[in-house]
Specification:
Blueprint (H helix, E strand, L loop, with lengths): L9 H6 L7 E3 L2 E3 L6 E5 L6 H18 L3 E4 L18 H15 L3 E4 L3 H8 L4 E4 L7 H9 L3 E5 L9 H9 L6 E5 L2 E2 L5 E2 L5 H5 L5 E4 L5 E2 L8 E2 L4 H10 L4 E7 L13 E2 L3 H16 L2
Parallel strand pairs: 3-4, 3-14, 4-5, 5-6, 6-7, 7-8, 8-11, 11-14, 14-15
Antiparallel strand pairs: 1-2, 9-10, 12-13
Helix pairs in contact: 2-3, 4-5, 5-6, 8-9
Length: 292
């Protein structure tokens, strides 16, 4: 059984969370008292065929679970542990692939931007521009993303307190774009360790914008494998279930059919075959909170 039809405001009432602004990412809505929507896909665009295959599979899984879906993949991974690591296919080819996913499957698409000059061309294609965590305070980048008029999803820096996200969101909304979301992805706790502080969730949602939780980057071990980042995907379901119980507006999962051989973030990406079971669990938690 999938998630039941969303009752506006009911999730907020059952979790004690505030109702936040509704943000549209294509035809998918985040916030406004709805249940969670899913942002999912491989970490990096590996090829046209790979992206289309994953997007189609994710679309089928999410439709079966009645979970709204946004496809995510990056044309460039600028923040890599090693200078020799695979970064992606680049802006032009990556955007062409995302445009094809959007056109052929009818699903909204999201990708990272790392430089202000990338925002305008990305805004011509994608439904949501994502600001990487290490760049979340870069004012010029935030303003350029806001200027596209597209939704802007800002990853909360691993160094940032929940209270500090208010200023980050204000840079986007203050530039005239109300379609801003913040994504929690863990906080640095000593070397190569991230922890998730669920007590910060109501603080971040109190600023009135949707809160997304990134359960896959939260299990990273940055630089933990020497020339690449490590992680532990077995912990993803535990964090995701906890976040849905807290009444999040969106869930972010990097998903791959063969993560052990993925060129980026393999150790923390969820296996595609494990997603249906996880969504069933998450929907059951959400339905229980509604009293269904």
């Amino acid at each position: 059984m999938g998630c039941r039809a969303r009752d506006r405001g009911n999730i907020a009432r059952m979790t004690g969370a505030a109702v936040v602004r509704e943000v549209a990412v294509g035809n998918v809505r985040f916030g406004g008292g709805r249940g969670f929507a899913l942002i999912a896909g491989p970490c990096v665009i590996e090829s046209r065929e790979h992206s289309l295959r994953h997007a189609a599979a994710l679309q089928r899984i999410c439709a079966a679970a009645n979970v709204p879906f946004v496809f995510k993949s990056s044309f460039d991974k600028a923040n890599r542990t090693s200078g020799g690591a695979f970064r992606g296919l680049g802006l032009e080819e990556g955007l062409a692939i995302l445009a094809e996913v959007k056109r052929d499957l009818g699903v909204p698409v999201l990708t990272d931007v790392h430089d202000a000059t990338q925002c305008a061309p990305c805004g011509e294609v994608v439904d949501c521009l994502q600001i990487p965590a290490f760049l979340c305070r870069q004012t010029d980048l935030l303003l350029a993303a806001a200027a596209t008029g597209r939704a802007v999803n800002v990853k909360k820096g691993q160094f940032m307190a929940p209270e500090d996200t208010k200023n980050v969101l204000a840079k986007v909304t203050g530039a005239g774009n109300p379609n801003a979301m913040i994504t929690e992805r863990g906080v640095t706790f000593g070397y190569r360790t991230l922890v998730v502080d669920f007590t910060g969730f109501p603080t971040m949602r109190s600023f009135g914008q949707p809160l997304v939780f990134d359960a896959t980057h939260a299990v990273q071990r940055p630089g933990g494998e020497g020339t690449k980042t490590g992680g532990d995907r077995t912990k993803v379901p535990f964090l995701a279930r906890s976040a849905v119980a807290c009444g999040i507006d969106g869930l972010f999962l990097e998903v791959h059919e063969d993560p052990d051989h993925a060129p980026s973030d393999g150790p923390n990406m969820l296996r595609l075959e494990d997603l249906p079971r996880l969504l069933r669990d998450l929907c059951a938690i959400q339905d229980a909170l509604r009293g269904d």
